[in-house]
Fold:
Amino acid sequence: MKTLIKIKPKDYKAGDIVKIDFMAMHPMETGMRKDKDSGQLIPAHYIDEVKFMFNDQLITKMVIWESLSVNPLMSISFKVPGEGTLKVVAKDNKGQSVESTAKITPKG
Amino acid sequence: MERRSFLKGFGVAAACAVALPHVASAADEKKVVGPNEMKFETAVAAITGGKALVASSKVKMEAPEIAENGAVVPVKVTVESPMTQKEYVKAIHVLASKNGNVRCANIYLTPANGEAFFGTRVKLGGTQDVVAIAEMSDGSFLTAKQNVKVTIGGCG
Structure:
């Protein structure tokens, strides 16, 4: 599972509220779609939990379902308390999980 | 429209959790039920525990009025709140009222967010209301909705 974390805007100070965009490359299968060739249902396969952590402290937890689009985007706000590491852990319904990190480095 | 041609026509670009009306009919043996089927009322009751939902201008929902492609519909929810330890938004729930599984996402926020905001992209099987429910720290539930007209369903 490939992931991408974007922090907007690029330049921010401690105390600023930034937007964190988290994107994961995932098929988000609903379990209701049929394989074109075999006619068999494709089993549901979707991300069901995403956790945003800053310096190992939980900021936001999401429980999500198959209704999110393919390669889902999740965007939240975050008030930058200072320097640290942002960690995003995403898990899907087949038990696969991925951990991605981004450095939070406020200027000034 | 026949289901087969519908599927062929749209290709494999996207899948969705929506039971098309004719697929859902009892007579149809090929009824496809998603893994997490849930009706709107059931989902709302599970979130609020029977408490009243209050439509509020504090909850702002941004979604297109017309979506050409139901597979990717951008939705943004902002809730007015100081986001302090005393008063904050505990959770934002995003529901697509007519999808097979109406639940899209539950977002559990903390004061560390600084602002109650959630943005995503959802699949919509057809024209319907997208509903946001905000669970406030005082135990109340605020809601807002936006009707989205979908010209091509997010199924297929």
Observations:
- DSSP finds three helices and nine strands in chain B.
- The mean pLDDT of chain B is 84.
- Chain B touches chain A through 46 residues (CB under 8 Å).
